[in-house]
Design goal:
Elements (H helix, E strand, L loop, with lengths): L1 H19 L10 H19 L1 H16 L5 H21 L5 H5 L11 H4 L2 H16 L4 H49 L6 H55 L4 H10 L9 H13 L1
Helix pairs in contact: 2-8, 3-8, 4-9, 4-10, 4-11, 7-9, 8-9, 9-10, 10-11
């Protein structure tokens, strides 16, 4: 939503002020300039990134326009889920949660939290490390190092499409200059034309530079920035899960474990201690 609002504000501010100053919007419509900029930039994008980053970008870019899925409601579900499953393990033994983590969709505990269950990456992260805890003889330090490694790998993998989109944004002004230079070449070979027509050709050439800069900083670069913020938000949930499970491995009570996880959240999404306690009580009573 904010991405769309930003785009609308950019277009209205730039083109609106240009029109109010007496400019003719039709003069800015140069399809061939757009072909040069988009064609050249996308060709460089393909050549520089290959398959995996392009596929990652194709999946990540549409998600930016849907808005963030990581917020307080999702984290509250996460804490309630982990509190419930750790409480069951504490009361009935770790083997009692084996069926829950082997088939999470059939688990009566996981099924109560559809937002978490809908994210298979988060579910796999939780179930994999709970499975290690159930297997026994787990070294807490080794488990923590493995968690850190997986989070770092996930973060590095997530940066590949971001770098690809940012590279696309960085290249567009340069291809805008290329389009402008091509326009100037056309002007120079048309010096026999009257000044009024030469002026039009020069204006068309300058539009290439304008479009390259506008498309880069006004449209493509914000997507890369939003993807970065989304990746950072995504990393937080894994860090929070890590804190909760490590606290459990080290012998903390389930209530204390979820408090560890709460502290890992960014402040805008972090529930208060009282909010979390009340939510956990309600989840436990269901």
């Amino acid at each position: 939503m904010f991405m769309i609002i930003g785009y609308v504000l950019t277009v209205l501010s730039i083109f609106g002020a240009y029109a109010m100053g007496g400019g003719h919007l039709a003069a800015l419509f140069q399809p061939l300039e757009l072909v040069m900029i988009f064609g050249g930039a996308f060709g460089a994008f393909m050549g520089g990134n290959g398959g995996k980053p392009m596929k990652g970008a194709a999946k990540a870019v549409p998600a930016v326009f849907k808005g963030g899925k990581f917020g307080k409601d999702l984290y509250m579900e996460l804490f309630a889920l982990l509190f419930e499953i750790l409480s069951k393990a504490r009361k009935e033994g770790l083997m009692s949660i084996e069926a829950d983590i082997e088939d999470t969709h059939a688990s009566p505990i996981f099924s109560k939290y559809p937002k978490i269950l809908a994210d298979h990456h988060v579910v796999d992260f939780i179930s994999d490390y709970l499975r290690m805890m159930v297997s026994g003889n787990i070294n807490p330090m080794e488990m923590e190092n493995l968690m850190d490694l997986e989070i770092d790998t996930h973060h590095t993998e997530g940066h590949a499409p971001i770098s690809a989109v940012q590279g696309l944004a960085d290249g567009m002004p340069a291809f805008g200059i290329v389009a402008a230079v091509m326009g100037v070449v056309h002007v120079m070979e048309s010096l026999f034309l009257p000044p009024s027509q030469l002026g039009i050709l020069i204006a068309h050439a300058l539009v290439g530079t304008f479009l390259g800069i506008l498309l880069s900083y006004g449209f493509v670069a914000p997507i890369a920035s939003a993807m970065t913020h989304r990746l950072e938000d995504e990393a937080v949930i894994y860090k929070s899960i890590k804190m909760i499970l490590m606290a459990s491995v080290n012998g903390a009570a389930p209530q204390a474990c979820v408090e560890f996880g709460r502290k890992a959240l960014f402040s805008p999404d972090r529930p208060s201690f009282a909010e979390l306690e009340e939510h956990v009580k309600q989840a436990r009573s269901k």
